């Protein structure tokens, strides 16, 4: 787990929703990926936070990846006005989440 940038405290349930997305990624990794390494990188920017998660598991092509967990992560990001992408990385899965941050969040 790595963090980059100046930490922001997010309003309302935003922090909880981001936490739930990470929690679901970890759950999917343990249950489906069969890998040994999970990398989570969080970047704080002035106008958004970006979450990048990568594993070295079997990848999406081998898991039939349109399960409820992926749908929930996408809906959670969308609920916050953000974006969610998941792609097969050949030797694992890469997930990227971007969530806008209101001005003056500290």
Compact overview of the structure:
With 106 residues, the chain is of the alpha+beta class.
Give the helix/strand class: alpha+beta
Low-confidence stretches: none
One letter per element, helices H and strands E, the order comes to EHEEHEE
Q: Number of DSSP strands?
A: 5
Taking the sheet with the most strands, its summary is: 5 strands, mixed
Compute the average pLDDT: 88
> Radius of gyration, Cα only, in angstroms?
14 Å
The best one-word shape is globular
- N- to C-terminal separation? 22 Å
DSSP helical segment count: 2
- Per DSSP, what share of the residues sits in E-state strands of 2 or more residues? 25-35%
Strand arrangement in the largest pleated sheet: 1-2-3-5-4
Helical residues, percent: 25-40%
Q: Can you describe what's shown?
A:
- The chain has 106 residues and is of the alpha+beta class.
- Helices cover 30% and strands 30% of the residues.
- It has helices at 14-33, 68-79, and strands spanning 2-4, 38-44, 48-55, 83-88, 93-100.
- The chain has a 5-stranded mixed β-sheet with strand order 1-2-3-5-4, covered by helices on one side.
- Strand 2 and strand 3 form a beta hairpin.
- Helix 1 (14-33) runs antiparallel to helix 2.
- The radius of gyration is 14 Å and the shape is globular.
């Amino acid at each position: 787990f790595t963090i980059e940038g100046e930490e922001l405290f997010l309003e309302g349930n935003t922090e909880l929703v981001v936490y739930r997305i990470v929690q679901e990624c970890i759950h999917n990794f343990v249950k489906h990926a069969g890998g040994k390494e999970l990398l989570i990188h969080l970047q704080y920017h002035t106008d958004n936070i970006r979450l990048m998660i990568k594993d070295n598991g079997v990848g999406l092509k081998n898991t039939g990846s349109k399960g409820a967990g992926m749908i929930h992560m996408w809906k959670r990001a969308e609920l916050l006005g953000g974006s969610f992408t998941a792609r097969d990385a050949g030797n694992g899965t890469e997930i990227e989440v971007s969530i806008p941050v209101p001005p003056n969040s500290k």
